[in-house]
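Thread amino acids onto this structure.
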């Protein structure tokens, strides 16, 4: 009576998901925008797991009750607070069992109406992976290609602000996939499950068939694009974007200059990783320019000596449905808008 399936609530904006698992489990991955209200902390969960394996399930339950009982008043007050702000509260644990079941029963017995997610986080993961495996039935991709600095990320941001459906995989992964991929990204790492949760949320909350997305290798830093999604990207519509080298350098400086100035030590380490490719002399020259704050010269040379050769092979792998060469970003954006409208069949924000 008080259970719901994930497909009933996954797209319900009035619903708050409350993750009752331990902080460690929560940090590895959870439902997008869920809040953590752990019944057991990390140490307590480990202790009870050990008792369950080495002694018995019944003894583990008794220890669990002993650990949880002092927290119940606090947890109920938290849930009452959530209820004041959200129409529907859905509690979940790993599989929809020992942790969420008793608390859901207690809340409803006290006339605090909440729901239990049937199957717990495991059911959400199953839903996520099934959605990805069947991505070809839901979405198609307009894939943006081009050398570093042509402004693919800038274009995605501008198009999304205008209401066009866009997916920024690098932003979700907290890495741009290159040796300098950490620049401009948050310090905390994204886990694979967190990445997939962000990706699912972006897709299911947009009714459009087509998404703009930037071309990527299947691995972005420590994150892997799910195979079915990557394959659907390969099968998508491909757009090659180009502009002058000076435009590309200007785009990169605008995008990264502030972050570069804060991360000289990290940049030096990244440059050292390129010694075998570019040679010691070039790297020493780049380090001197870095310490002088001459980022523009470094960007000018790295695009030619490192990034362009890196991209050249991958750019030749595709035949393109649209080629854009621009002087201003706005020129490229207008061609992308028109291309999207021919595919989706309607105008954004009309």
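Threaded sequence (350 positions):
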């Amino acid at each position: 009576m008080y259970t719901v399936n994930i497909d009933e609530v996954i797209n319900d904006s009035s619903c708050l998901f409350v993750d009752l698992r331990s902080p460690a489990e929560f940090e590895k991955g959870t439902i997008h925008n869920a809040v953590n209200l752990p019944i057991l902390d990390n140490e307590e969960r480990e202790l009870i797991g050990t008792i369950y394996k080495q002694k018995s399930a019944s003894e583990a339950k008794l220890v669990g009750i002993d650990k949880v009982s002092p927290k119940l008043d606090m947890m109920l007050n938290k849930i009452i607070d959530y209820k004041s702000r959200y129409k529907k509260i859905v509690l979940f644990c790993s599989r929809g069992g020992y942790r969420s079941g008793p608390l859901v029963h207690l809340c409803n017995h006290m006339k605090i109406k909440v729901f239990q997610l049937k199957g717990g986080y495991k059911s959400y993961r199953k839903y996520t992976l099934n959605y990805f495996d069947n991505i070809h039935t839901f979405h198609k991709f307009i894939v943006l290609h081009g050398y570093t600095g042509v402004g693919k990320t800038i274009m995605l941001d501008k198009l999304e602000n205008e209401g066009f459906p866009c997916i920024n995989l690098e932003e979700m992964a907290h890495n741009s996939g290159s040796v300098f991929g950490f620049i401009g990204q948050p310090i905390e790492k994204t886990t694979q499950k967190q990445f997939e949760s962000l990706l699912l949320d972006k897709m299911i909350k947009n009714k459009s068939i087509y998404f703009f997305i930037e071309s990527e290798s299947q691995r972005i830093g420590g994150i892997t694009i799910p195979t079915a999604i990557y394959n659907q990207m390969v099968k998508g519509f491909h757009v090659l974007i180009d502009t002058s080298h000076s435009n590309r350098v200007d785009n990169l400086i605008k995008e990264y200059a502030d972050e570069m100035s804060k991360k000289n030590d990290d940049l030096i380490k990244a440059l050292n990783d390129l010694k075998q490719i570019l040679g010691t002399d070039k790297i020493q020259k780049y380090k001197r320019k870095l310490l002088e704050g001459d980022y523009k010269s470094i960007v000018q040379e790295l695009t030619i000596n490192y990034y362009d050769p890196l991209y050249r092979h991958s750019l030749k792998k595709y035949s393109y449905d649209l080629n854009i060469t621009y002087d201003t970003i706005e020129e490229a954006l207008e061609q992308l808008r028109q291309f999207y409208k021919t595919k989706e069949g309607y105008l954004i924000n009309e």
